[in-house]
Amino acid sequence: MKTKTMTMQENSENTSELAPIFQHIALNYLREDENIRTQALEQFREWITKDPNIKNCRLDSTFLLKFMRTKKYNISLAYSILKEYLSVFRLYPRWFEKISVDDQLLLDFFMDGVLIPLPDRDEDGCQIIIYNLKNMNLDKFCSQEFYRLQVLVYHIFFEDHETQIAGVNVCINFTGFDMKRLAMFSLIDFSNFGRIVRHAIPIRLAKLNFINMSKYYKPFYEVVMSLMTPKLKKRVHSYKNFKDLKKVMDLSILPKEFGGKQELSDVLQQFVKKMKSRREVIRELGDMRIELPKHTNNDWYLNNNSSKIGSGMVGSFRRLSLD
After folding, report:
1. CB neighbours of residue 141 within 10 Å
2. In 206-263, which residue ranges form alpha helices assigned H by DSSP?
3. 96-111 burial, b for 16+ CB within 10 Å, e for fewer?
4. Coiled-coil regions in this chain (predicted)?
């Protein structure tokens, strides 16, 4: 089959049904209006259907708009990231292949509260997600589950037009994240996954907040910052604790563990229901396919600086002592 058109969520090419804040961002920041959106979708679909290397791809508006919104309707750039997106499913199967909302291992990992997607958005309309790294159970899970869970959660996020438009507010909580948990990550993998996110995943990172990050995590910080453009670096901020985060966020929308009013178990269960309601969307990921040149390997997207970053980071982590 050359391409596949999915009918689910095909009803939302018009932003007029969205709240005013999202209409404002779409028009003034993404330069999106009905005319531009309609023409861009038509051109994007035509490019995909005529590309001999793309064997199967979703053509519904919800899927295609996340690429165009990420690149502010530069169709050429959106098309480029789409092809890289399709490619990583083949190049990195351990992270992207057979992702499922019914994967009990991933569901158990999620219910431990390592990634906490909040049901309420921040004042700018951003989807909030908390990385609560101390909850990583080293006896049950490894770094591969951590990467795969992120792939699942972010795919759920970006089926929402509001999140495509306003982006994600990422809060990484280092409280209780000890050296044993840090050591479970290969820094080469961490760097590579970060590059995939930057070059091949249609994600709008609106804000990145580091909370209680000590000097011991400087190698982690250096990798993250090395992957960012100067514009993105301006969106990165550090806070001593969640109380300090009050300067920029209404803490009442957080789980009680972080000074809010929400029950963590309720927050997690609510998102599990959302994931399962989109079971078919996630299943369809495995059906999309692009044909790659024979010489292509999983170093395909790396730039010349990656090896320097990787080797330096590995050296830094090896010098860290474990408890």
Report:
1. 18
2. 218-226, 230-233
3. beebbbebeebbebbe
4. none
Size (the chain), residues: 323
Name the CATH topology of 104-279. Phosphatidylinositol Transfer Protein Sec14p (3.40.525)
In the numeric block, the tokens 């040149």 are attached to 293
H or E element that contains 193:
helix 187-200
Q: What's the one-letter identity of residue 203?
A: I
Looking at 118-162, which runs of residues are DSSP E strands? 127-132
Q: CB-side exposure of 285: number of CA atoms within 13 Å?
A: 24
pTM of the model: 0.86
Q: What is the pLDDT of residues 169-206, one digit of tens each?
A: 999 999 988 878 877 888 788 888 888 988 899 999 99
CATH class as words, domain 16-97+284-294: mainly alpha
**Placement of tokens 């050429």 in the chain:** 76
CA 120, 197, 153, 45 torsion-angle sign = positive
164 contacts 204 by C-beta, under 8 angstroms: yes
Question: Are 174 and 215 spatial neighbours (Cβ–Cβ below 8 Å)?
Answer: no
Domain range annotation of the chain: 16-97+284-294, 104-279
